[in-house]
Design a protein that fits this description.
282 residues, globular, Rossmann fold, alpha/beta, 7 helices, 19% strand, two-stranded antiparallel ribbon
Length: 282
């Protein structure tokens, strides 16, 4: 796809399908930063680390590639960021299942998959007022821990990030803000606007001035459904990407709502092939 040429049509489709909706007032769920009593499925190893930034123990899950225990090979890493109201166990079984299948079918290289706990409403940002320093905990604490404790290929070409909803927006933002850590980002139904603002109001992280300097350095893929509540917020971000002459891939999925399983089914292989394009073993 050549998004610059086709963007006017894509934006027209987005504006056609997107319905203005109010998410309404939502109660704040209890924040549990370490959920080790709810193992999501076999094949996922739950761990935690004492976060200096957060002042609490923060949980995460790791999915290891086949053969990891038998050798000394080093592997690339995929980070998956869950959506709002979730934790480190959310979507971990579903997404790791997609990865396992594609590795078994030799469609993508074997890789570790890491599922951090981003809290229910953090937006994967630091908020010193509430002592929720999720961005620092992941980018500056967890990434080095994974590279220390597991046999990883500790370079940006071998490290990518992807997410759903709040995690989709977070994944794109992490890649743009930390291009020395992540070479590519994928977003399913990314929440690019703040929850309390208009869908047409984007944080400065997604502004043309922030995006343009990273042109050609970070690869982006965005996927959203025509029935998804995050659809409307994609139009201004796509416009900024085009204005910044920033290459990207975009896919609009017909009749898909805010359901991670539907995204895995319709675009899981395409997304993971895109993300792992630069992966290689040693």
């Amino acid at each position: 796809m050549k998004p610059v040429q086709r963007l006017p049509l894509l934006l027209s489709l987005i504006l056609l399908f997107a319905a203005v909706s109010s998410q309404g007032a939502e109660s704040s769920p209890e924040v549990r930063w370490n959920n080790d009593d709810q193992p999501p499925s076999p094949g996922l190893e739950h761990r935690s680390f004492p976060s200096a930034a957060m002042g609490v123990e923060v949980g995460y899950n790791v999915h290891l590639p086949p053969g990891y225990a038998q050798g000394n090979r080093r592997y690339p890493v995929v980070y998956f960021l869950h959506g709002a109201t979730g934790n480190e166990n959310s979507d971990a079984a579903g997404f790791s299942g997609v990865v396992s299948r594609l590795v078994e079918e030799n469609k993508i290289p074997p890789a570790l998959v890491v599922f951090p706990n981003g809290g229910p409403r953090s937006g994967y940002r630091d908020d010193p007022a509430s002592k929720s320093m999720v961005e620092t905990a992941i980018a500056k604490e967890l990434v080095p821990i994974i590279d220390r404790d597991f046999r990883t290929l500790a370079n940006r070409e071998s490290r990518v990030i992807v997410g759903f909803s709040m995690g989709g927006g977070g994944a794109v933002r992490f890649a743009l803000k930390y291009p020395d850590l992540f070479s590519a980002a994928g977003s399913w139904a990314g929440a690019f606007s703040f929850r309390h603002e208009s869908e047409h109001s984007l944080p400065l992280d997604y502004a043309v001035s922030a995006i343009a300097p990273l042109r050609g350095r970070v690869r982006l893929m965005l996927v959203v459904g025509t029935e998804d509540l995050t659809l409307a917020s994609h139009a201004p971000f796509l416009q900024n990407l085009v204005e910044a002459k920033f290459p990207f891939e975009f896919e609009l999925l017909n009749q898909v709502g805010h359901d991670p399983g539907a995204y895995y089914e319709h675009s899981g292989e395409k997304m993971l092939r895109f993300l792992t394009r630069t992966f290689r073993g040693n």
